[in-house]
Amino acid sequence: MEASKVIHAIYTDDDVLMSAVKKVKAEKHHIEEIYTPFPVHGLDKAMGLAPTRIAITSFMYGCVGLTVAIVMMNFIMIKDWPQDIGGKPSFSYLENMPAFVPIMFELTVFFAAHLMVITFYLRSRMWPFKKAENPDPRTTDDHFLMEVAVHGNESELTSLLKNTGAVEINIVDKEEDAH
Amino acid sequence: MEYKISNRLKMSAIVLIVLGLLGVGYGFMDSHKVNEDNISEYLANEAHHGDHGTADAHVEDAHSDSHAESTSHATEGHEDEAHDGGHEMSHEEHVLHQIHNRPWAALYVAAFFFFMIALGVLAFYAIQYAAQAGWSPVLFRVMEGITAYVLPGAVIVLLIAVASGTIGHYNLFVWMDPDVVEHDKLIQGKSSYLNLTSFIIRGVIFISGYALYRHFSRKFSLAQDKADDNKNFKRNFRISAAFLVFYIYTESMMSWDWIMSVDPHWFSTLFGWYVFASMFVSGITVIAMISIYLKSKGLLEFVNDSHIHDLAKFMFGISIFWTYLWFSQFMLIWYSNIPEEVTYFVTRIEDYKLPFFGMLAMNFIFPLLLLMNSDYKRINWFVIMAGIVILCGHYIDVFNMIMPATVGDRWFIGIPEIGSILLFGGLFLLIVFTALGKAPLLAKGNPFIKESEHFHY
């Protein structure tokens, strides 16, 4: 943890939160994290987060799925136990390819979707039996929480955040805040 | 926000039309150089040029193929007749027909292609109204401009179809030929539907439905600009919903009438959907291309990157939808392998290998890989390049639907085809850009216009 002391500013509206984020960024303060009960459109851009690369992983997983489907069907239907496909006993992968397209499609989607979700969970550091990082359970209901690092500028930050429409401001010592 | 068709654009469109007319004229003249008197000579020359011994066998093959199972003159009766006159004679007659069909088919493919773009846009436009979409109203005037071509385009297609069966020598639809029908049990069974009178009546119903909707939706859209209530918008909403019902039935029937019936023995139950996907993706592509063009002239500054992004998403998505339908049709027929069905694809794979598989690359693999990346959908020149490939691909799609039934293996994309594209392309540009100049480019009275202007993704 870089900052031992952080400010938790709590908001009750996503539009207020958005304008608050823009103000805090304009004042060149570092926002550590924001906890919201639902995805807020455009928040990542306002926070200045790097664009997600999950789509690239998804594409690669899709390619893996496609390859698995091709190799698998070639082994099962052509090599290991050659089968008569719809009255076309050509025993050639290419000539029977149309029959395998649904499988190729499904496995591409299956691999892309499942592995992408797993990647997303891991990248977000979420795995089974992990203690929740969420500092305030109200952010799972109807509150929004912005966590800003404090570097000896407590009072300045507090008044700035008050002005942005925060309904509650807590100063938390992170180390001692162990759950 | 007024736009006026520039003289340069007008001149280029007229030049295209003139060049096209010359090409089409040349196509007809050239095809009639070969006639009953010199066809034997022509075929002998051709066999010489194909300087390998198999040329003859190949011609024979293709001939017996198409005679036995497929397309233009594949009628049991015709074959009987042919046996009387001797085999060679009928082959010559057959080739002669194909040669004479080519300029007609070329004209028809191009006419249908440009009509289909306008009709696809009309359907897209109606969907925007019926769904009360908030993102698209800034594009409404562009769409209305393109749909100006629906009426002339449809009339041209119907006229060519009817002319081929009256002035011409049944060059597109063999079921229009009473001689063929007389000897063909299958067509006889369908003749209560497939006959010239009901073909024309249905065509007129389709066209008047499309043209009426286009007329009134444009009228209400313009009236809404000046109104201070939403009455015209609500009217448009209602007629759009009604039109979509009419459209989804008639589009399907139109595709049977105007395309599928060139192969009167063959049918596919999802053909209407397949043609719909083709016209929808071509239409959306043209909306994107014309919007980008007008933006580059500094005219559509209220159309932002997010609108282009959304159109490109549609181009990507509907391209995949088209592939899905194409493959659904192909795989079932390939798998079941029933002779009267599978012949459709056998002719295409044997005689049309390049356009058949090339079309798949252009309509599926190309847009899939090119437009997959989110950022590329916002780069205007990228969308234009992808759009050009998609449009060429869907031209070839229509080409593959019409040509095998009319010209068999004697296809080529030469002067008649390119001339027809130039002719109708020029006409399309002229009509669309003239219509674009007739109204302000922003539908400012639309109740969703503010939402649309602020649309961002």
UniProtKB/TrEMBL annotation, chain A:
<dbReference type="InterPro" id="IPR021776">
    <property type="entry name" value="ActD"/>
</dbReference>
<dbReference type="Pfam" id="PF11821">
    <property type="entry name" value="ActD"/>
</dbReference>
<keyword id="KW-0812">Transmembrane</keyword>
<feature type="transmembrane region" description="Helical">
    <location>
        <begin position="54"/>
        <end position="77"/>
    </location>
</feature>
<feature type="transmembrane region" description="Helical">
    <location>
        <begin position="97"/>
        <end position="122"/>
    </location>
</feature>
<keyword id="KW-0472">Membrane</keyword>
<protein>
    <submittedName>
        <fullName>DUF3341 domain-containing protein</fullName>
    </submittedName>
</protein>
<keyword id="KW-1133">Transmembrane helix</keyword>
From TrEMBL, chain B:
<feature type="transmembrane region" description="Helical">
    <location>
        <begin position="379"/>
        <end position="396"/>
    </location>
</feature>
<feature type="transmembrane region" description="Helical">
    <location>
        <begin position="148"/>
        <end position="173"/>
    </location>
</feature>
<keyword id="KW-0472">Membrane</keyword>
<feature type="transmembrane region" description="Helical">
    <location>
        <begin position="271"/>
        <end position="294"/>
    </location>
</feature>
<keyword id="KW-0812">Transmembrane</keyword>
<feature type="transmembrane region" description="Helical">
    <location>
        <begin position="105"/>
        <end position="127"/>
    </location>
</feature>
<keyword id="KW-1133">Transmembrane helix</keyword>
<feature type="transmembrane region" description="Helical">
    <location>
        <begin position="12"/>
        <end position="29"/>
    </location>
</feature>
<protein>
    <submittedName>
        <fullName>Quinol:cytochrome C oxidoreductase</fullName>
    </submittedName>
</protein>
<feature type="transmembrane region" description="Helical">
    <location>
        <begin position="193"/>
        <end position="213"/>
    </location>
</feature>
<feature type="region of interest" description="Disordered">
    <location>
        <begin position="50"/>
        <end position="92"/>
    </location>
</feature>
<feature type="transmembrane region" description="Helical">
    <location>
        <begin position="354"/>
        <end position="372"/>
    </location>
</feature>
<feature type="transmembrane region" description="Helical">
    <location>
        <begin position="239"/>
        <end position="259"/>
    </location>
</feature>
<feature type="transmembrane region" description="Helical">
    <location>
        <begin position="411"/>
        <end position="436"/>
    </location>
</feature>
<feature type="transmembrane region" description="Helical">
    <location>
        <begin position="314"/>
        <end position="334"/>
    </location>
</feature>
